[in-house]
Specification:
alpha/beta; Aminopeptidase; six-stranded mixed sheet; two-stranded antiparallel ribbon; about 40% helix; globular; binds zinc ion
Length: about 400
């Protein structure tokens, strides 16, 4: 993909500063949660009353949990007023029962939350799926590496999805070369009309044209972040969807030929798979509720800004993704502001032009972009895990 109308605004933060800011935000999340045990300790009477009710059902003794007058605290007396109980009545045995009840109630509350939103995404597995792709070498269309990687994606998806559709065609490049192409569409709950579309490109770029070393520019990009990370995300997501099917229909689309040619303008021999899919949908009138393109999401120093074309085309989808990330505590990675100072030409554009509401989630501020140094050591399980949690939560 490519930046357009680049602006310097918002790009000046050093990686160091961003890491420090994110650490501070994470610290504040910990502080936000620390009031829970404190409040339970300072104000035990509701737990005790609940326990009394429970115990009275099977105990012959009447547990008197009434308290003497509370002792006023100097700070926040209404919120943190302690309620001492009568030691002579509440025996050590009943205290054990109280403690057990508290633990049981807390466990029930936590497991209830998990039942509502089971999060299954495994970042370590995603990292292994990225490593597996790197074993194939560069995945440039028309090469043995691409043949093996495409076959691998199809096999992995057939083991997890309900339906797998492979679109195969030949693309003729501007200079007359014939390129074999494959889009792979893995569908979960294919019978449902309400669907969410996720897409990522699985090919890698044939040239490292961002390299400052002229001798390296003809080398293919290894594509750990630019190629393998999105595919790894989807395979690990498919693991989660196989274990716990999504609420709506989900389509995971692996597009070919995103990174082959020039991003222009005009675009020539790039965005090939997404352009093909836009004019060859899986069924007539295919219209997902919304779509998200996940591209370059494995950077170990991950910062994802909102993308201007996405904000223009589907602002409600951008809002939904960033709100979900914030609810999960990942607003240090999915930063609320500022957006990129340039539009990004990427696989969402052909789908937007076909009338779909699709946005681009991408970290384009990646020092190894379109260089021979886009290798596996530049991505991390932690980054994959953060994006995976967000991607999964959007489907629950
Ligand atoms: Zn690229």
């Amino acid at each position: 993909m490519k930046k357009e109308a680049q602006s310097a605004s918002g790009d000046a933060d050093s990686a160091e500063t961003r890491r420090a800011q994110r650490k501070a935000v994470r610290g504040s999340h910990t502080l936000c949660l620390s009031w829970i045990p404190g409040l339970a300790l300072a104000y035990p009477s509701p737990w005790l009353k609940l326990t009394k009710l429970a115990l009275s059902a099977f105990s012959p003794h009447d547990f008197d949990l009434k308290s003497p007058e509370p002792i006023a605290l100097t700070r926040c007396p209404e919120l943190f007023r302690p309620t001492p109980y009568n030691d002579s009545v509440l025996t050590w045995g009943s205290r054990v029962l109280v403690a057990c009840s508290v633990v049981l109630l807390a466990t029930a509350a936590c497991s209830g939350d998990r039942a509502e939103k089971p999060m299954r995404f495994d970042g370590q597995s995603a990292m292994r799926y990225a490593q597996a792709q790197m074993q194939f070498g560069p995945r440039v269309p028309g090469t043995p590496g691409a043949q093996r990687a495409g076959d691998w994606i199809i096999t992995e998806m057939r083991a997890r999805a309900d339906t797998v559709i492979v679109q195969s065609w030949t693309h003729t490049t501007a200079d007359g070369k014939q390129l074999p192409m494959r889009n792979i569409l893995a569908r979960f709950r294919p019978g449902l009309t309400n669907r969410i579309l996720y897409l990522t490109h699985w090919d890698t770029r044939p040239v490292s044209d961002n390299s400052t070393n002229l001798g390296e520019r003809q080398l293919p990009v290894p594509g750990a972040n630019d190629g393998a990370s999105g595919v790894a995300l989807f395979v690990a997501l498919a693991d989660a969807l196989k274990r716990t099917p999504p609420a709506e229909g989900v389509d995971l689309l692996f597009v070919d030929g995103e990174d082959y040619g020039s991003f222009g303008p005009p675009v020539v021999d790039a965005l090939i798979g997404s352009t093909y899919f836009a004019s060859h949908p899986p069924e007539p009138g295919y219209k997902p509720m919304f779509g998200v393109l996940w591209d370059m999401i494995g950077d170990a120093d991950l910062v994802i800004k909102k993308e201007p074309y996405s904000i223009d085309a589907a602002p409600e989808v951008v809002e939904r993704v960033w709100r979900t990330a914030a609810e999960l505590g990942h607003d240090d990675v999915f930063v609320p502001a500022p957006p990129y100072g340039y539009g990004i030409t990427d696989d969402h554009l052909p789908l937007i032009q076909a009338g779909m509401r699709v946005i681009d989630v991408i970290d384009l501020e990646y020092a190894y972009h379109h260089r021979p140094t886009d290798t596996i050591d530049k991505i991390s399980a932690r980054s994959l895990s953060i994006v995976g949690e967000v991607a999964e939560a959007l489907l629950r």
